[in-house]
Amino acid sequence: MFARTYYGTHPDMMAGASNADLRDRYLIHDLFREGACVLAYTHADRLIIGGVRVGAGPVSLPRQQEPPSAAGRSLLERREMGIFNVGAVEGVVTVDGTAFALAPKHCLYVGMGADEVVFSGSGARFYLASSPAHRAFPTRRIGLDDAAILVRGTAEEANARRIHQMILPGTCDSAQLAMGLTILEPGSVWNTMPPHVHERRSEIYFYFDLPDVAQDRVVHFMGQGEATRSVVLQDGEAVISPPWSIHMGVGTRAYAFIWTMAGENLDYSDMDVLDLCQLM
Ligand SMILES: O=C[C@H](O)[C@@H](O)CC(=O)C(=O)O
């Protein structure tokens, strides 16, 4: 059912970890296979991350397979999900018979208890993130225009960007899932500068919209502030940030990324910002 399971890690495990170890533990790749819904399971606040590339026909969200008591039931029986159109063409997500057309970069929140989720639209690409939920909130579409927007950074610092808060209190209610989309201005390349940690939530960054998918890269920084490490990502890849890890990146050119958080609270401002002089 899951292409990969990612286990939790201790900060001490960063010491001596090779780049291959870091990629194995934190990098989520190969999410987009034509006609398939690829899912990865992480023990980071039990987030499920997925990708869908629609081919000739519609693609369904898989149903639970384990344990036997849950087999055949909806994956969202006790979960909620955010779905973003991360492709270039409009796509459609149908939830229990209701079709939601999603333009590129628009999002759908799917509440706990939804039974059938079907993706359609030839060539459409969707990014999915799901966390456990304790309560059903209404399924709804959130356009980029519906988001609360934080304008951050400057061109001089090469980090001018717009943070679109899409699944967060005030824009869309959820049980614990928080998601948004940050778009860098042309010429700006640094995100989440200065970086922060939030002990009470895990976070996953998914990078996309790199201008040249063959050549452009994002160098993503992780680890504790005093012992930073880096992972190089391509377009369409995601990286897990444990609650003890910073998460910031620099691209070879401007790009966009989707941030997903889950954990103890939905307070976006619950973060400890590091001074750049603390980074080592
Ligand atoms: O916890 C918040 C997340 O890391 C992002 O919203 C930060 C971000 O998009 C940015 O500053 O560029």
UniProtKB/TrEMBL annotation:
Keywords: Isomerase, Metal-binding, Zinc. Pathway: Glycan metabolism; pectin degradation; 2-dehydro-3-deoxy-D-gluconate from pectin: step 4/5. Gene3D superfamilies: Jelly Rolls, pectin degrading enzyme 5-keto 4- deoxyuronate isomerase, domain 1. Its EC number is 5.3.1.17. PANTHER family: 4-DEOXY-L-THREO-5-HEXOSULOSE-URONATE KETOL-ISOMERASE. It catalyses: 5-dehydro-4-deoxy-D-glucuronate = 3-deoxy-D-glycero-2,5-hexodiulosonate. It holds the Pfam family KduI. Belongs to the KduI family. Its cofactor is Zn(2+). This is 5-dehydro-4-deoxy-D-glucuronate isomerase. It is an enzyme of class 5 (isomerase). The keyword Zinc applies. One of its GO terms (molecular function) is 4-deoxy-L-threo-5-hexosulose-uronate ketol-isomerase activity. InterPro entries: KduI, KduI/IolB_isomerase, KduI_N, RmlC-like_jellyroll, RmlC_Cupin_sf. The gene is kduI. It comes from the Bacteria.
